[in-house]
């Protein structure tokens, strides 16, 4: 039997947590042959609820779940963790400005970054889900100088999945045939869902759209629908996306640690390395291929003038966020 992997999850008593834990314990993220230990973190008032979730996990008798640890101490949760999903974050309260939200979450992610640096496995892979995810991930990364920056990422996979489905619905094609989608930039309203590289069974999506006289669909419908999907779900459900966010987190970590599909890529927000003219210093959504815990940014995709504008708008927003939290970046 393989050695167990310690998976730490913050905000584990929240709604995404509830949709995430059982699927991870079932092997959806790391495979059905991989024993795991879940190390669940939440704040003190959520401990009772967290214990209830742990009881339910026990009651599932998942064969690969070796242990469940619940705690309000990040040192306990992150100790020797090889995978960390940072979901816990402060939600935007009434009358709270964006700056206040960045500040409140900055405090959480700088402290948790420092603790990761102290106690997590040196090869730990970190996915930040809690919003504002890209900048929270930057803060955690900068506060963990002993860890490889390439081991920090933020979640754009939900946006990626949303975009694929919109194309599949528009063209009446199966989901699994839509390949090479990209969401550039920030996980926010400025993100750039880009279907100019997308293909359906080898044919360019833009050619099919053009053939049908739907040239304007991308700018007028597709991009705004994907950008505003989170708000539309809140409007309809009264709560933010949880099951779909958990599903995206599982897909992100699965592909990163194991592999992305042949002849396709996924979107991950990772530290910019100058690719596509996006300067270093922010976490930015790029198309990547993954294998065995490594990712490579897909290079040299042609970018239109309008596409470049969208990409820079999102980059500039990230720069603005960075400016607001610069005192937290070591
Ligand atoms: P939730 O409010 O149901 O749960 C959040 C949990 O985090 C709560 O149990 C809370 O007690 C906990 N928490 C707060 N501060 C903490 C801290 N310092 N340490 C540990 N735990 C802490 O929220 P939900 O729906 O589970 O969403 C979590 C985050 O994910 C939010 O920031 C949300 O905006 C974000 N999100 C990100 C998406 C993405 O695509 N990147 C998609 C959907 C949500």
From TrEMBL:
The Gene Ontology biological process annotation of the record reads: malate metabolic process; tricarboxylic acid cycle
List the EC numbers from the record: 1.1.1.37
Q: What is this protein called?
A: Malate dehydrogenase
- The positions flagged as active site in the entry are 187 (proton acceptor)
| Entry binding sites for substrate | 92, 98, 131, 162
Keywords attached to this Swiss-Prot or TrEMBL record, sorted alphabetically, are: NAD, Oxidoreductase, Tricarboxylic acid cycle
Tell me if Lyase is a UniProt keyword of this record.
no
Gene3D superfamilies linked: Lactate dehydrogenase/glycoside hydrolase, family 4, C-terminal, NAD(P)-binding Rossmann-like Domain
Q: Which organism is it from?
A: Sideroxyarcus emersonii
* Assigned protein family: Belongs to the LDH/MDH superfamily. MDH type 2 family.
């Amino acid at each position: 039997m393989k050695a167990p992997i310690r998976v730490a999850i913050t905000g584990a008593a929240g709604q995404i947590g509830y949709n995430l834990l059982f699927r991870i314990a079932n092997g959806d993220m790391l495979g059905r042959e991989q024993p795991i230990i879940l190390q669940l973190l939440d704040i003190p008032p959520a401990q009772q609820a967290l214990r209830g979730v742990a009881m339910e996990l026990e009651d599932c008798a998942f064969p690969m779940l070796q242990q469940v640890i619940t705690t309000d101490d990040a040192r306990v949760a992150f100790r020797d963790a090889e995978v960390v999903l940072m979901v816990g974050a402060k939600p935007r309260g009434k009358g709270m400005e964006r700056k206040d939200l960045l500040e409140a979450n900055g405090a959480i992610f700088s402290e948790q970054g420092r603790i990761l640096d102290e106690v997590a496995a040196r090869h730990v892979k970190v996915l930040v889900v809690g919003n504002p995810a890209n900048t929270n991930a930057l803060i955690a990364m900068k506060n963990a100088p002993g860890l490889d920056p390439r081991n920090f990422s933020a979640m754009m996979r939900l946006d990626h999945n949303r975009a694929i489905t919109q194309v599949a619905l528009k063209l009446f094609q199966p989901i699994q045939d839509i390949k090479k989608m990209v969401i550039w930039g920030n996980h926010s309203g400025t993100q750039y869902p880009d279907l100019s590289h997308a293909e359906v069974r080898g044919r360019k999506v833009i050619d099919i759209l053009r053939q049908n006289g739907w040239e304007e669909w991308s700018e007028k419908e597709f991009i705004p629908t994907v950008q505003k999907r989170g708000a539309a779900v809140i409007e309809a459900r009264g709560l933010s996306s949880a099951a779909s966010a958990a599903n995206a987190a599982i897909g992100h970590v699965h592909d990163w640690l194991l592999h992305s599909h042949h002849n396709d890529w996924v979107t991950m927000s990772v530290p910019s390395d100058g690719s596509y003219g996006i300067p270093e210093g922010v976490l930015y959504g790029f198309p990547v291929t993954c294998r065995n815990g490594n990712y490579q940014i897909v290079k040299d995709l042609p970018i239109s003038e309008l596409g470049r504008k969208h990409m820079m708008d999102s980059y500039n927003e990230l720069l603005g966020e960075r400016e607001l939290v610069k005192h937290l970046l070591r």
